[in-house]
Specification:
By secondary structure, this protein is mostly helical. It folds into two domains: 88 residues; 184 residues, Orthogonal Bundle (MetI-like fold), CATH 1.10.3720.10. Helix content is 80%, strand content 0%.
Length: 330
C-alpha cells in the first residue's frame, strides 16, 4: 500500500471519528422529536371531550357531526392522522384552528416574539445571577451556608407562587410594575415582563447556582489548584485559570437545559400575568381540544428543547476530549 492510499485512509478514519458522533447526536434528536410528537398527538386524541362540538354546536344532528368529523379527519386512525399532520407541518402548514377559525401559523406568529422576549430575559437572569451566585459560594467557603439557604428557598418556590407574591408586592402594593400584558416597544416590554421573567427564572436560577457552586467547590479542592495557591499565585488568577475554566462544562450543560425548559415553564407565568404568548394560547386551547393549535405549540416546545440538548451534546464533544473519544467509540 503506497503512502497516498495510507494518507487517504487516515483522513477517512479521522472524518468517521469526528462525523459519526455528530450524526448520532442529530439522528437521536430527530428521533426524540418524532416519538415525542406522536405521543403528544395520541395523548391529545384520547383525552375526554369532542372538538366537533366546537364546530357544529351541541344541537347538531348525527349526520352533521359525522360530516364535521370527516372534514376534520377525525374518522381516520391515529397513525394516519399523525402522518398527514406531520407531512403538512414539515411544509409549514399546521392546519386551521378549530376555536379561532384561522390558520394556526397566523395565531402563533405574533405570540412567539412575546414568549421569546420573556424567555431571553429569564435566561439572562438565570445565567448571570445563577452562575455568579454559585461561583461566589463555591469559592468563598464562609458564604456557602448563606448561599445554600438562598438556593434551597429559591428551588422550593414554584413559579405560580412566585408570580402571586411578585404581583401582590411590586405591582399592587408598590405599583412599580404593571400586572397585565406584554407592553409595546422594547423598553415598555422590559417594564411589563420584568416580574414575569423573575417569576419564571427564580427556581431555575437557584438550580444553576447549585450546580455551579458544587462544580466550583469540587474544582477548588483539586491538587493542582492547591498547588497553584501554594505557589503564591493571586486567588483571582487561580480562580479564573484553574477553577472556573474546568468547572464550566457542567455549568454550561445545566444552563442550556434550563434555558430550553423555560419555553415550557412560560405556560404558567404567562397565564398568571396575562401575557399573550404561546404559553397562554396553549392553556386556552387544551380544554377546547383545539388539536392543530395544541400540536403546533407542543411540537415547537419539543423542537426547541431537543435542539438545545443536541447543541449541548455537540459543545460537550468539542470542549471535553473524553466525551469526544467516547462518542467515537460508540
Amino acid at each position: 500500500m503506497d503512502s497516498a492510499t495510507t494518507s487517504q485512509n487516515t483522513v477517512f478514519a479521522r472524518a468517521v471519528r469526528v462525523g459519526w458522533p455528530i450524526v448520532r447526536i442529530i439522528s437521536g434528536a430527530g428521533g426524540t422529536a418524532l416519538v415525542t410528537s406522536f405521543v403528544t398527538f395520541a395523548a391529545l386524541a384520547f383525552t375526554p371531550g369532542d372538538p366537533v362540538s366546537r364546530v357544529v354546536g351541541e344541537r347538531a344532528t348525527d349526520e352533521q357531526r359525522a360530516a364535521a368529523r370527516h372534514a376534520l379527519g377525525l374518522d381516520q386512525p391515529i397513525p394516519i392522522r399523525f402522518l398527514r399532520w406531520l407531512g403538512n407541518a414539515l411544509h409549514g402548514d399546521f392546519g386551521r384552528s378549530i376555536t379561532y377559525r384561522q390558520d394556526v401559523s397566523s395565531l402563533i406568529a405574533p405570540r412567539i416574539s412575546t414568549t421569546l422576549f420573556l424567555v431571553v430575559m429569564a435566561a439572562v437572569i438565570i445565567v448571570v445571577v445563577g452562575v455568579a451566585l454559585g461561583a461566589f459560594g463555591g469559592w468563598h467557603g464562609r458564604w456557602r451556608p448563606i448561599i445554600s439557604a438562598m438556593i434551597g428557598v429559591g428551588i422550593s418556590i414554584p413559579s405560580f407562587v412566585a408570580a402571586s407574591v411578585l404581583i401582590g408586592t411590586f405591582a399592587v402594593e408598590l405599583g412599580w410594575f404593571p400586572t397585565y400584558g406584554a407592553g409595546q416597544g422594547f423598553l415598555d416590554r422590559i417594564h411589563h415582563l420584568t416580574l414575569p421573567s423573575i417569576a419564571l427564572s427564580l427556581a431555575w436560577t437557584a438550580y444553576v447556582a447549585q450546580i455551579t457552586m458544587a462544580s466550583v467547590r469540587e474544582e477548588a479542592g483539586r491538587e493542582h489548584v492547591e498547588t497553584a495557591v501554594g505557589r503564591g499565585l493571586k486567588p483571582s488568577l487561580v480562580f479564573r485559570r484553574h477553577v472556573l475554566r474546568n468547572a464550566s462544562l457542567p455549568v454550561l450543560t445545566a444552563s442550556g437545559l434550563t434555558v430550553a425548559g423555560l419555553v415550557a415553564g412560560a405556560v404558567v407565568v404567562e397565564t398568571a400575568f396575562g401575557v399573550d404568548g404561546i404559553g397562554s394560547l396553549l392553556v386556552k386551547s387544551v380544554p377546547n381540544k383545539d388539536y392543530p393549535v395544541v400540536m403546533a405549540i407542543s411540537m415547537l416546545i419539543v423542537v426547541i428543547f431537543v435542539t438545545v440538548a443536541a447543541l449541548l451534546d455537540l459543545a460537550q464533544m468539542v470542549l471535553d476530549p473524553r466525551a469526544r473519544a467516547a462518542g467515537g467509540r460508540r
